[in-house]
Amino acid sequence: MARCRLALGLFESDVGSTHAGLSTQQSIEYIDRVYSDYLRYGNLSPAQLVGKRILELGPGDNLGVALRLFAAGAAHVTCLDKLHSRRDSAQQLAIYRALRTGLSPAERTRYDQAIRLETAVRINPACVSYFWGVPAENADRILAPGSFDLIVSRAVLWEIFEIDRALKALDRMLRPAGVMIHKIACLDWMFRQNGYHPLEFLTVPELLYGWMARDSGKCNRRTIDDYRTTMSGMGYAATFHITRVVNGSAAEFPPGTTTLAPGLHYDQSTLNLLSEIRPRLLSKFRNLRDQDLMVEDMFLVAVKPA
Asked: Could you tell me the pTM of the whole model?
């Protein structure tokens, strides 16, 4: 169904409508958390954003993160989405007004250059531009090579089936010594929400899973080992900050968690969960190390070779 809608040019979707069910305060907290995560995991200070040209993949129904990046000093922020997430204009206006109040005077001055907040939201494309209807794997068709210093995304790469093609497109748009920061999930809700083993989705044959999940916003089943191999092959200096493991607690691991320690990040119940399903996994997943198979969420921070 999702593929048919895209083929017909119907790009509006509830996918990415993150703020639809949030209060204004919750929306501000979410925007601040995403912005802060990029700085923390990327080991960046706001001063290091000054003059940078940034690409944000998958902003969804709100451009608050992009506006925060511009307010911090970025020269320009480009936002790119495959779909056009549904949004409520009155709610969005309230979010943008509230976001402004939490900024410093200097940030507020730059914020006011990027957005007008009278009776409707008007964003200045000279500061923050927004494109939709273009998947990440085709982004280099509309955006120039080497045009970005920093590329960021949150919960976007995990649902791109042609992920190698997408990463190559991002690589072409990133300047030498540029940085990518991506929050990537390696999990599935399709089976889990119906009571199945959390790794049940790794037992489904490739062809069948492709029919089930492609173009639907579901997991592409790439593991930390896949991303590690891909980024190494592209010559990037990549760091993987693991934030959560299968059957783990709600609290995310702090930046710098690049290896998993028994008793600290996982316990015997985690290993038992893996052992229970390992015989039924597809061979490419069955042979993964426990510490790679259990990773459910992570930040990839990758520096392009100069």
From this structure: 0.93
